[in-house]
Batch of 2 targets.
Target 1
Amino acid sequence: MLTSDFDFSLPQELIAQSPATHRDHSRLLVLNRATDQISHRRFCDLPEFLRPGDVLVLNDSKVIPARLRGKNTRTGGAFEILLLEEITKNDWWVMMRPAKRARPGTIIQILHKTQCASPFEATVQEVNSEGHRRLHFSGSGDILTALDELGEVPLPPYIQRIEEQPTDRERYQTIYAQAPGSVAAPTAGLHFTAELLQKIQARGVSVCCLTLHVGLGTFAPVKARRLADHLMHQERFLISPETARTIATAKERGGRIVAAGTTTLRALESARGAGAGRTALFIYPPFHFNMVDCLVTNFHLPRSTLLMLAAAFAAPDQTGGRERILRAYGEAIANRYRFFSYGDAMLLL
């Protein structure tokens, strides 16, 4: 299967630049895989599609303010730093701009958002094959605990901001986020409110969490011509024994496992039980799903691994999911749905 098979044309004005006024008032396109029927609802209608005995699984990873600003201590040149993954305390893999000027040995003064100097400096340690830099931070304490003061919300580039808006810190974060570590939001979870989760539980649906720290590779377009040649990024996950038991019990009793987001689905299909690890699972048609029965997800970028996963889920064990998901995307475009991180949602039953 070719990467070009997952291309589609999207009008620029349908790329959501801000979230819905109320989280659960976003639109919800419902695709019934058994009947191939599409219906148009609101996200607050989600409980109607869930049954007693089902389990809704959420990703409770918390987005960190991962975008930093700095300047070369020798030349004064400006750098933009995007934290990707913590290796150990004050030791991180990062993306940097301009990358060519960030050679090993370069020392960078980290700036406050006010552009004044912070107590932290960063030294470029090495460069990997992807062009990412390994930075060691020195100064006062742990850079991770200082990010709320120093960092900016790492909004994706298609959300065009000169600077972050006050609402971004709240709205580019799920209400149940607990474990810091993501550099991009698990966007399907952005639609949930406390009231909606209460309604879901009132229907006899169990709600539980796992953690998968979302990396930027999640949203990156596939550059290989053939899907089989794509090297999938790795992401860290943790599934607690309690969550694993809840899922196993529900499956034994005939309940459905409803994954809120592609990140949740990847963790579940990778682990199939309790545990911690890293997943590089690349899901594309045809794919057999062992754990997840229903998927809540947003509308994804062309040629992205997320779109390919949604296509695989649209028709498990078959290649026809590509046509089915692109047909649903075509209907969403015709009905002026809002796309990507701050956009509307889709439910695949």
Target 2
Amino acid sequence: MSEDLDLFDWRRRVATMYPLPDLASFRAARDELFRTHPQSPIPPEERASFAGLRYFEIDPRYRVRARLEPGEPGELEIDTGGEDGVVRYRRAGVVQVTLPEGTATLTLFRQLGYGGGLFLPFRDATAPAETYGGGRYLVDSVKGTLAGPLEVTPGSDELTLDFNYAYNPSCAYDARWLCPLAPPENRLTVPVRAGELKYHTED
């Protein structure tokens, strides 16, 4: 299979994981995908010994309701440093969430260009000791992260965010991957002890 078809299959499988009935099933399916798929971000030489990704315990307090409010208008450019070059986003709005350790405000972005999707990267106070130093993603709908981390009601600004689905970008596993990371406005001073932990425990 060509790399292009591998990538298509990877994104298809990621998208089909999100309707799984519970987080435990989702995490098991994600481990299997990371262990076996040619497009896995885990280095090929590590896949045979791959024992699974590490997560915080599932905590229902990190599933929160919020409202998308108008935020600072304008665009944001993030240089991936790789073949994707500079990725352009428009600020779709901001959400203020109440988490166990305090409140936090996050900007939700929309990727510009054909087929643009929603993107919510963040870095919190657990980085870099417990989580990846560059931050994590909660939503990247272009890549297939759909129902689960973000649920909406059509015609409403109300939404639900579930930080138990927070996951590492591909560059957290192998330096050959280059990723857009959380901009300053999404660097939180509160810890988010939910979702995926860092992959390299020795860092």
